[in-house]
Amino acid sequence: MNQLPTLFGVINYEFRMQFRRRALWITFLCIALLFLIRGGIHFFLVFALSQPLLPLVANWARSLNFLLPIVAGVLLADRLARDRKTRVDELFTSTPGALSVRLAGKYVGSTLATLLPIFLFYSIGVGSILYQTHNVMTIPYALAAFATISLPGILFVSAFSIACPFLLWVPLYQFLFVGYWFWGNILSPHNGIPTLSATILTPVGGYMASGFFGDNQQLIVNATVMQGVESLLLLLGISLLVMVVLWQLMKWEQARQ
Amino acid sequence: MNIEINDLSKVYRGGVQALNAIDMTIPGGMFGLLGPNGAGKTTLMRILASILRPTNGSIHIGEYDIDTERGRTSVKRMLGYLPQDLGMYPDLSAREFLDYVGILKGMDNRKARRQRVEELLETVSLTNVANRKLKTYSGGMKRRIGIAQALLNDPKLLIVDEPTAGLDPEERIRFRNLLSDLGGDRTVLLSTHIVEDIAQTCRNLAIMKSGKVVFQGTTAELVGETRGKVWIITTQGIKPEGNFTVVSTLNMGTTIQYRVVGELSPRAGAVPAEPSLEDSYVWLMREQRTSNISMIS
User: Fold this and answer.
1) Chain A nearest CA to B86, separation (Å)
2) What is this model's ipTM?
3) Per CATH, domain B3-218 is 3.40.50.2300
């Protein structure tokens, strides 16, 4: 059986189901409002006009990556557990659609749907930068920044949020994930507490922002292009690895049932 | 298409033996699997649908050996499965859900798939509510969607596990008729603990108890084995006592009529009756209990 149409079909329906969740839109709206109130307005009115275009766009992408992936991670955590809860897994296992394809479709479809409000919010900011700078290069720069700074981090978070609840209770995972996010991405390493912040493992995308776009703010400054590439590949590689491990675990569990 | 089951056993983690060295041949057409709760019917259905793996034994479905990955995939392509607890995504509409299952069943041609979905929605009389979310459906409507999804790929093998549980009498009859129609040109395996469902639809059946097959044959053979063991005892209200099991009680106004099965010698007020499948089932279960007790003692 050709599994490619099945993959696209699963992506389509997983996208629809996640996209239709009211919680997705309400939560992102609240976080976006909080973000704007806490510093976003300052970003547009003061900071934006004083920066060169390339680091400015990268800074906007990285700024969003500080908070919005938390929402993405929390909202994606129930996707796999829901199949057990609604008991569709038994029916789906009886179909010739391969488990690997169903998992890949779930990962891609639900992640894309979760990315959509993030991208919309990002686009509003990009529109504002375009309006203030009158420079059309804003658009290609913004797309490149989103693809290299935001996307790898979201893919990384999504992979863990889909896979970990296979072993953990969903609310416990969500609690641990939020804790991890603040500890491993926002906590300064200069505080004396060991942290993953400012390492190439951080999904916030600081190495890509600094290495590719010259955005030297906050924890990571003067990163090289190579460090940016390393960080990007590491995040994507770990995401892939997590999904493969999940697939093997589920296959193993199915075989021993 | 025949199904050959040889020496099939299933032991769950924790040591619970659900199936114990089952041998069974399931011919084409409607086949009933009857037994009390916990007999192992659902486990057998799940193994046949390639959801569970057996601990021991072999199964051949037509030419395919489901012990191999290739065999399982081939069987899944021609399988329609309605589980006991059918899971659905509550936020999808019936039309979307059927389309999604069609995709998973490998129905790649979108136009043909959508046409098939419409046909089946019509068959199960849900076309007018097909755009409503599944969470708004009643139990009977969900069962109908269940049978529709099982039929999407026009399966050669249809496995339905307790399909009429929770349905009202009218829906149950409609369901039985639908299954009977389907049994004409495919193998339909109907698992239930409701004797009437089997009596009305199946010529062949197997009865399971405690993970074993205690009878396999035709409904006529099972009924034949009980001939001479079914009696109607009429009393003024006092419950009759003796070595028999009461199948049903009918209040006639001034008297009460008890339908019983057992080794009874003719006596006053006891009239022999023609056995039904339900009588035969009760007789068989009673015999099983008796033989278990004698084995223990």
Assistant:
1) 7
2) 0.88
3) no
